[in-house]
Specification:
Elements (H helix, E strand, L loop, with lengths): L3 H6 L10 H9 L5 H5 L3 H7 L2 H10 L27 H17 L9
Length: 113
């Protein structure tokens, strides 16, 4: 079974999520493989190229650069009106409006009493 370093040494620098232009620049500076890229200092990569390439270098070194996002709890949707005259058409309009809001948020309706 091949080690990670052996696989990275056999992987061309252009095959590890770099653009053709950046890949050429890296090859011109002597960085030919993913292992070569992993051995460059992240701060140097950030200065010379970009934050994105710095993250690639850090990922190649085994450092996770992806942040976990937590979702806020969904707020309930309430579309209420004081009904003096219970008109079926008007209630249908309110339902339609609430449904449009749900669809806009990518949610579905549930019946709560």
């Amino acid at each position: 079974m091949a080690t990670i370093e052996a696989v990275m040494a056999a992987t061309a620098v252009g095959d590890v999520a770099v653009s053709a232009r950046v890949g050429k620049q890296l090859r011109d500076t002597g960085v030919l493989t993913a292992l070569d890229l992993a051995q460059i200092g992240p701060s140097l990569v950030r200065e010379r190229w970009s934050v994105v390439l710095e993250r690639t270098v850090r990922e190649l070194r085994g450092e996770s650069c992806r942040r976990l996002r937590t979702r806020r709890p969904k707020q309930p949707i309430a579309h209420t009106r004081a009904l003096a005259n219970r008109s079926v058409i008007w209630i249908g309009s309110l339902k339609s409006s609430a449904f449009s809001r749900l669809v806009g948020q990518g949610r579905s309706a549930s019946k709560e009493v």
